[in-house]
Design brief:
2 domains, mainly alpha, 66% helix, Arc Repressor Mutant, subunit A, 8% strand
Length: 146
């Protein structure tokens, strides 16, 4: 704006045009920023789909190449026993004494151990070939092998 007395441009006029140019600049930057964010979100979603497709393909190939568990042989039993925890060894000792055992019997003998933990231990012993699992749920009986 021109000042009527001195015929020069006033600061008010410069500030109005300056603030509008700053506003336009901020609006442009916000638009650009939101476009970049939208691009990153879309590219990340597409990238995750591609990775999950390749992951599922690699999982399928892993499933195909997995070997069946090998039964314990007498010479490997010592190595398997070394891999057991102290609690699992106590469970194995109880199993060897009785010949067969249920998780309920183990819970009575080992008062500070939960039923779930003992069930996990018995499943591990069965997977290592120390015993055979017979039945399911609460009535599961574990029978000593060989």
């Amino acid at each position: 704006m021109l000042c009527p007395e001195c015929k020069e441009e006033t600061r008010e006029g410069n500030e109005e045009s300056g603030s509008s140019s700053i506003f336009k600049l901020l609006l442009t930057l916000l638009s650009l920023g939101s476009a970049v964010i939208a691009f990153l979100v879309v590219s990340q979603k597409c990238g995750l789909k591609k990775n999950s497709d390749t992951d599922s393909a690699s999982e399928k190939s892993k499933q195909v190449t997995r070997k069946a568990p090998v039964k314990s042989k007498k010479k490997n039993v010592k190595k398997d026993v070394d891999a057991l925890t102290q609690r699992q060894r106590r469970v194995l000792t109880s199993l060897r004494r009785k010949g067969s055992i249920t998780v309920g019997e183990l819970v009575k003998n080992m008062k500070n151990v939960s039923e779930r933990t003992l069930r996990r231990d018995m499943n591990k012993l069965a997977s290592l070939g120390f015993c055979k699992k017979q039945g399911s749920t609460k009535g599961t009986k574990y029978i000593l092998k060989g």
